[in-house]
């Protein structure tokens, strides 16, 4: 069973991003019942959940809320069949992702290399199929938006299932920062 570590945003960020998600989902004929937008960090295969919980608590405990910057590039993952918006993978998110990955490998978790196919991204919709016209112009897909940053306020462990109530296994809220 695969478990996904994902970064999620605060309510204000979701409210500002929903119109962009709907517009892009309609443009690329994506699934309307897509999950909330998230940043996939790691995929761990068949972990001991108690041990994983203990390790992630140690890693995430000192981290505060932080922002990620969106770019105007759209990525389509053919392997995962998802529609993604590229984020600037510099700063806090990059450091947190590298720390989680290295620590989980140190504790002998079976971590799949998630970010090797492309840079870090914000997954916004699931695609049932990828149309040929999109594949042809894959390299020059962009969008325009006034939204530049989103605030990450928690990290969660997900188990993908058909029942939405069973998706979230554990949530790790980040510390509140007075300046953000």
From TrEMBL:
Gene3D superfamilies: Cyclic phosphodiesterase (3.90.1140.10). It comes from the Bacteria. This is 2'-5' RNA ligase.
């Amino acid at each position: 069973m695969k478990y996904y570590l994902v970064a999620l945003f605060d309510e204000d960020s979701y409210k500002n991003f929903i119109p962009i998600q709907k517009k892009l989902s309609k443009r690329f004929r994506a699934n309307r019942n897509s999950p909330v937008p998230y940043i996939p960090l790691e995929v761990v295969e068949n972990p001991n959940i108690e041990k994983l919980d203990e390790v992630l608590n140690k890693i995430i405990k000192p981290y505060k809320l932080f922002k990620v910057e969106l770019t105007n590039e759209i990525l389509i993952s053919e392997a995962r069949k998802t529609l993604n918006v590229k984020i600037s993978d510099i700063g806090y998110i990059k450091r947190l992702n590298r720390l989680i990955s290295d620590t989980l490998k140190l504790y002998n978790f079976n971590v799949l290399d998630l970010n090797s196919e492309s840079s870090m991204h914000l997954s916004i919709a699931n695609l049932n199929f990828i149309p040929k016209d999109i594949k042809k112009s894959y390299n020059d897909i962009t969008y325009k938006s006034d939204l530049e940053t989103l605030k990450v306020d928690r990290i969660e462990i997900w188990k993908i299932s058909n029942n939405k109530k069973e998706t979230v296994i554990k949530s790790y809220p980040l510390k509140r920062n007075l300046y953000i």
